[in-house]
Write a structure and sequence with these properties.
2 copies of one chain form a homodimer. By secondary structure, chain A is an all-alpha fold. Chain A has a single domain, classed as Ferritin, core subunit, four-helix bundle (Ferritin, Up-down Bundle). The first copy, chain A, has 10 helices and no strands. The radius of gyration of chain A is 17 Å and the shape is globular. The interface between A and B is medium-sized, with 28 and 28 residues. Chains A, B: This is tRNA-(MS[2]IO[6]A)-hydroxylase (MiaE)-like.
Chain lengths: 221, 221
């Protein structure tokens, strides 16, 4: 139990991350069932999904230790995150892999941004999550192999990756607008400064671009 | 690495259990997404799903340590288990809960039957799986509360539970017929004795009936 109630921004942050992990877990499991071409692939994406579930448990445990009901903390963010998943439902295995890798990467960047604003207990959690960061690397191998076998795949997947991040920014801005305490906390003292939020999103987008290049997805001119 | 190749019955047993856990994990995650009425319920069924994934990892790790490719070991059983899930797709949250509880129970009974035939390394695994046995208890509370609120629910769910076990027996007999080494191992020295297999299924059915009574589901006359 915490001695004083946590700041609303902290509860929001843990809530949005918790729901992102819970729903990420479930959607990834669905993609593994639907699209994995072999049992080995299905198991690999299931591993990644299961890691998301473990992160969800860490976050909801932290919320409970702060005296906050996880369900209440997650509730304000379900619509934005569910909408993101609806807008970015993969149509095949390669799209599912790019989504897993890109989604995981955006989430890790977001944990890093968030880490600067959290107290030591939450820092431990962030470090634990970041330690799992390499788990989506199998997706890189699979996507690169597919592009090598058929270079045309690259353009289609690059467009797909751009859509993933575009929809994420759009839902992210919706969340920032609706949860001023969260936005204020994420960008520190400049919380009221919309341009500062814009700069944070720009950093996330830039990091996303680097990951997409690592996948072999270079956007057209 | 094992010094001598494992018996075909052992590989079959680990393979069928591994695929049951992998696909159980994925189907349960799907049911959690589709039917859970609250985020807390969704998280609770996700916990159970995630435990299945952990068991899958234990089993596939054991197969690998025996020098066996998990995918190859699972392959002979995918059709029967996939068909079971198609025949027993829940249509609402209560059916999903009864399936999770009944399916988990049948699986644990099957681990117990199997345990008698395995070597010490596999015994440890079985004990680890059995230690997780209490995790589906949340389903009991939810189903009993629903029956208390509306006693008519009981008859419908009792029929549903009967269908779950009926389809399981049917797929189980299909597996036993197609994998004689597995059937022989499970019923020990009496492997060629179809009546002995029948008695094993009778024990599983009886245990299932007891669990359904615990849920408050008593079959009609």
């Amino acid at each position: 139990m915490s001695e004083s109630p946590p700041a609303p921004g902290v509860v929001d942050l843990l809530g949005v991350l918790a729901y992102a992990e819970l729903t990420g877990f479930l959607r990834m499991a669905e993609d593994a069932s639907r699209f994995a071409p072999t049992l080995t692939d299905r198991a690999a994406l299931s591993d990644l999904a299961s890691t998301e579930h473990a992160h969800f448990r860490l976050l909801s445990g932290l919320l409970e230790s702060l005296g906050v009901d996880p369900e209440q903390a997650m509730e304000p963010f379900t619509a934005a995150l569910d909408d993101w998943h609806v807008q970015t439902a993969p149509s095949d295995w390669l799209e599912a892999l790019v989504k897993a890798y890109a989604g995981n990467g955006i989430a890790l960047d977001f944990y890093r941004e968030a880490a600067r604003q959290l107290d030591p207990a939450a820092q431990d959690l962030v470090n634990e999550v970041l330690a799992d960061g390499g788990r989506s690397e199998f997706a890189v191998e699979r996507v690169r192999a597919a592009i090598e076998a058929d270079p045309k795949v690259s353009g289609r997947l690059a467009l797909w990756a751009r859509r993933l991040v575009g929809e994420a920014l759009s839902q992210g801005q919706r969340i920032a607008a609706g949860r001023p305490a969260l936005a204020a906390m994420l960008v520190g003292a400049h919380g009221e400064d919309l341009a500062e939020i814009g700069r944070m999103f720009a950093r996330l987008t830039e990091a996303h671009g680097k990951r997409m290049a690592a996948l072999g997805l270079t956007p057209g001119p």
